């Protein structure tokens, strides 16, 4: 009753006369009658609007006290890593009569190289995550040959010098689905990945007398998992992996009879700095390769390729949620 009385009083103050007094006075003209009716309607509308406003404020206050917050369906997160990569093992062979060349032992890949790894993640209704990742991966070196190197029927003689380029960046599109939505401390998601490689591998004589290159753009599907364990409100551990081992031609429909594999697995320890900013330390194994012969080789190559790599990375990074 107190709220209704307040509304009536507010209406009187705004429009000057009591509704009962107006009803007691007989309007002299139709115009005065219409004005009186308009004032009555305005008082009622004002009261209804004021009542709705007060009720809305009361509901918001109750939700704030109980800690209830309406969250959007979408959440965008930017992730960036920066660190170094070390070659654990890396060998390539181009051509059936080619040299199975050891990059780590003979190709100048016995040192550390810088690496960055940016990605964007879009979370939808908490259980669905879409990820776009770009991984630049360029290793250039220059070496003195102790023995002959044969690449696609070209001989780089011993005691000569060669420039080597191993450029293997890739783009990755992934989807994850959380399968433990009600777990309090453990998150586990599974899904799939489409990886697009953009490879350029070249060998160039320092004097310019010999040059061979192998370039390829390919699409490889893979499986993906991600698990996160919340240690306490401000720290967590995370495991993530993308990988597959299968005939490449069967997967992407190409004419190249090649067996390939990829494995990108990492362990991460993170700290929650704010609700939107996390920092982390990451250890990663990045490996894979392929072996086989293309059905449509382009000379001077006979189409045979053997390429296996094993890299390890150490990086630090951050996550920022928009």
Can you put this structure into words, describing what you see?
The structure is a single chain. The protein is an alpha+beta fold and 322 residues long. It has two domains: 65 residues; 248 residues, Lipocalin (Beta Barrel), CATH 2.40.128. Helix content is 20%, strand content 56%. It contains five helices and 15 strands. It has a ten-stranded antiparallel barrel. Strands 6-7 form a two-stranded antiparallel sheet. The two termini are 46 Å apart. About 4% of the residues have low confidence.
Strand numbers in spatial order across the main sheet: 1-3-4-9-10-11-12-13-14-15
Q: How many structural domains in the coordinates?
A: 2
Share of β-strand residues: over 45%
What is the CATH topology classification name of the largest domain? Lipocalin
Distance between the termini: 46 Å
- Discrete helix count: 5
Number of DSSP-assigned strands: 15
Radius of gyration: 34 Å
Percent helix among the residues?
10-25%
Q: What summary fits the major beta sheet?
A: 10 strands, antiparallel, barrel
